[in-house]
Amino acid sequence: MEFLFNSLLELITQTSTNLPPDVRAAMGIALKQETPGTQSHQALSIMATNIDMAHEDQGPICQDTGMPTFIVHTPVGVNQLVIKKKIKEAVAEATRLGKLRPNSVDSLTGKNSGNNLGEETPVIHFEQWEHDEIEVKLVLKGGGCENKNIQYSLPCDLDHLGKAGRDLAGVRKCILHAVWQAQGQGCAPGALGVCIGSDRAHGYDLAKMQLFRTLDDVNPNPELAALEAEIVAEANRLGIGAMGLGGGVALIGCKIAAANRLPASFFVSVAYDCWAFRRLGIRMDATSGVITQWLYRDPERPVERMAKETGFPLTGREVILTPPLTAEMMRQLKVGDVVLIRGEMFTGRDAVHAYLMKNPPPVDLNGAVLYHCGPVMLKQGEEWFVKAAGPTTSSREEPYQADVLRNYGVKAVIGKGGMGKKTLAGLKECGAVYLHGVGGAAQFYARTVKKVLGVHLFDFGVPEAMWHLKVEDFMAIVTMDAHGNSLHAEVEQATGDVLETMKA
């Protein structure tokens, strides 16, 4: 199969950089439905711009390209070992080209393989079928939304919703709770794949498989079709909004399957996917490996622009921040302020924060901006370039952040999804702020990086290293200020109150 490698590489590239038409359509509807001028509408506008940028530059829509998961159907007699080998080769090449971020980390040593290959990565599922062609479907689901997957064992008690029993009414409560608990951490507006029943392991697998349905299809089971529509409508009344900033759109799709279960078990498994809902597929000639058909997209159909205007419209009310920052500067900011950062910042996520708990930083962080980000980087000669650089979920740094603020003088933290009470107290004590970026907007933010000034702690691997960046007009919103105010806590409480009204 002489064209197999190139076909698979093209599948990976298109999946990472070109959002499917059904997702584009759903995001377009979300943008029209959201109230102009709100923070949620601003976030959706940036998402639309980012979608256009990714397609134009063939760059990753989101820097977190997840755990590549392939679903492969082959005719009887086709050598699946050859296909598996070529998938791995294509994944490694896509990583080298910057279409995938190196995400495969050894769970025992913590070492990043650097090429997305390793024990059980990428994930490949094979099935035979009675067709002449090979079909390969691919989903790239990032860690932020993967962490918001959730599984319920019925009966159970749920926050704000009370008792959920072993019936469709109980299932409905579980799914609504899954949307509510994700808030902005899963990069809302999201999409859900749900499995009712099965066992714990297979239920999660079947839930993820529901994400291969198009957002505009209709469930052949009338009861499930009605439940899918009901969930989307009710979820969008919660007030979560894009990125959990408050607003009218939290969900762009919900797809539900039911599977037989054991009498003793009743699981509801939920696979949460973000707005950067990346899945595509191809069919190939079984002898040559050439692509005969694309799934979810028509390559002959022109890709329409999502954004109404290029870039982010400025109002003149934005606050310019030029590091190094001081506590006095930060105490002048309040929740809701939009800032533009001009100057230097450092990336730092899980490995960096754990390191700083036991070791001094390799750079002076006094007055610095610390960006929760694991970028996609490419090296050309001796110089590094940022290919994708959106924020990662900040809640993972909650155990460390207050100490980092206190010990090293960091004055601004950028991430997505917000942080908790410990960090909020640290911000107030130290005179610092939390700045919320738009999750998944990896191309939008990459274009603000004018130069890579250096890299530290590179042994942690590209995503986890501490990158020293020079940025221009890096846009973010103050969502936790130095006075003890948190937009995230407010939205969680308000949406929880609305959820209470959905008990019935």
From TrEMBL:
Catalytic activity as recorded in UniProt: (S)-malate = fumarate + H2O
Pfam families, per this entry? Answer: Fumerase, Fumerase_C
Q: What class of enzyme is it?
A: lyase
Cite the EC number.
Answer: 4.2.1.2
Q: Name one GO molecular function term.
A: 4 iron, 4 sulfur cluster binding
Q: Which SUPFAM superfamilies match?
A: FumA C-terminal domain-like
Locate the Fe-S hydro-lyase tartrate dehydratase alpha-type catalytic domain: which residues?
Answer: 9-281
Q: Which cofactor does the UniProt annotation name? A: [4Fe-4S] cluster
Domain Fe-S hydro-lyase tartrate dehydratase beta-type catalytic stretches = 289-490
What keywords are annotated for this sequence in UniProt?
4Fe-4S, Iron, Iron-sulfur, Lyase, Metal-binding
Q: Which NCBIfam families match?
A: ttdA_fumA_fumB, ttdB_fumA_fumB
Name the chain's protein: Fumarate hydratase class I
